[in-house]
Amino acid sequence: MKLGLINSAWVQSGQGTAHGIRMTREIGFDTIDIFADPLDLEISERILIRRECQAASLPIVSVACVAVGLIDFNPSVQRFHMQRCQAYLDFAYELEAKNVLLVLGEYIWERQVIRPQEQWLTAVKHLRTLGDYAAKLKLDIALELEPFKLSLLNNVEHMRHFIEDVNHPHVKANIDISHLHLAGVKPEELRKLKGKAIHVHISDCDGKVHGDLPPGRGVVDFAPYLKEIAALGINGAVSIELEYAPQPDRITDWVREAYESTAKLMREAGLRA
């Protein structure tokens, strides 16, 4: 598998998108994922992202989209987010990416008032439609597993069930290792996602809260998860997801540390030469 980085890691540098892309290649990453909302981007920024990635010979694998409103109870909100998700798919096509990483929302009002099954079925319906739209663009949708207690997709069994309910060849799973650890998911449970996963996120955490730390700075035991991921035979990328560095002026060191520790873990798991 390839080793990538989500470009949001460079936000703290304050030096712009182009700098982050160039540094991603300089450090040694194979690929890059883009975290940017196409509805907020000027055309100049969209062109810059594609141009700089091409210049750096850095393929874009994924474009990350948070669309919690897809399962809002208001039809008007759902319609807006469907259009917004389609804009993300258009953006991914423009960037020649492979997939849109989609974060669904949470059950509203602690699963009271509105039946949870209604929100589930709403999400299934919308993902079938988005799957059709993705298929026309020869793209995939990779669903994020979130570790939060009210998230629609917060464990492997829910992810498997959801993908089977959607039943669309262009709607698959993303595997986020720190999220699995926080959700108490055992590595062997990933076998349920055989043929259903297309992308991977990796980061560390303190075992209590969402952290997105460089691997090795937290408590996650990566080897068993990576062993199971290797057995899934995913033809894609493992993308490092980082949150804010404690020393913003040393963000390059933070990213380089994450690259080196992850590359070592992947080599040991037989995932990267």
Q: Outline of this structure?
A:
By secondary structure, the protein is α/β, with parallel strands linked by helices.
What key phrases describe this protein's structure?
alpha/beta, eight-stranded parallel beta barrel, 273 residues, 8 strands, globular
What topology emerges from the helices and strands here?
Layout: E1 2-6, H1 16-27, E2 31-34, H2 43-55, E3 60-66, H3 75-94, E4 99-103, H4 116-136, E5 140-143, H5 156-166, E6 171-176, H6 177-182, E7 197-202, H7 222-232, E8 237-240, H8 251-268
Parallel strand pairs: 1-2, 1-8, 2-3, 3-4, 4-5, 5-6, 6-7, 7-8
Helix pairs in contact: 1-2, 3-4, 4-5
Descriptive report:
With 273 residues, this protein is α/β, with parallel strands linked by helices. The protein has one domain (2-268): Divalent-metal-dependent TIM barrel enzymes (TIM Barrel, Alpha-Beta Barrel). The chain has helices at 16-27, 43-55, 75-94, 116-136, 156-166, 177-182, 222-232, 251-268; strands at 2-6, 31-34, 60-66, 99-103, 140-143, 171-176, 197-202, 237-240. Strand 7 (197-202), helix 7 and strand 8 (237-240) form a beta-alpha-beta unit. Helix 1 (16-27) runs parallel beside helix 2 (43-55) and helix 4 (116-136) crosses helix 5. It is globular. The mean pLDDT is 96.
